């Protein structure tokens, strides 16, 4: 009985030490591209969501990883090639945190870049980012959207993994000895 108590105490101690060791953070980036094929005509308005938790986008882990900055690029272009008509095509890009301060611009093959505090919070809490494109005047084509985020990925330190492995090995040895007696 004393051997079992000692073995369990040692296993708890080793596992506890492994749990108190901290994780290390390395610089990391995530990227997601939304590319409708064929390109979408706007109007009507379009809403879509970038998902950085998708393994193909880098597998962001909300609550574990951390995004410190990001950029959104939306490619819109005119469905006509007449520069005179381009002056009358206007779009609104609605992203988290811009409900009261929306961006308007002429659509002439330009890229839109945006950032907001609410978008940063949404990315860190959920790993997703919702975008709505709305035509205010004229019609145009939506080519693609790209979300690039940079931050830090939590990685367990080697010492943490070694202590955890040692604790699990100790528990396995204790169980095998218990079965043999």
Ordered list of secondary-structure elements with their pairings:
Elements: H1 2-20, E1 23-34, E2 40-42, E3 46-51, E4 66-78, H2 83-86, E5 90-94, E6 103-106, E7 111-114, H3 117-126, E8 128-137, E9 140-156, H4 158-180
Antiparallel strand pairs: 1-9, 2-9, 3-8, 4-7, 4-9, 5-6, 5-8
Characterize the structure shown:
By secondary structure, the chain is an alpha+beta fold. It folds into two domains: 1-22 and 157-181; 23-156, Jelly Rolls. The protein has helices at 2-20, 83-86, 117-126, 158-180; strands at 23-34, 40-42, 46-51, 66-78, 90-94, 103-106, 111-114, 128-137, 140-156. Strands 1, 2, 4, 7 and 9 form a five-stranded antiparallel β-sheet that branches. Strands 3-8-5-6 form a four-stranded antiparallel β-sheet. The relative contact order is 0.29.
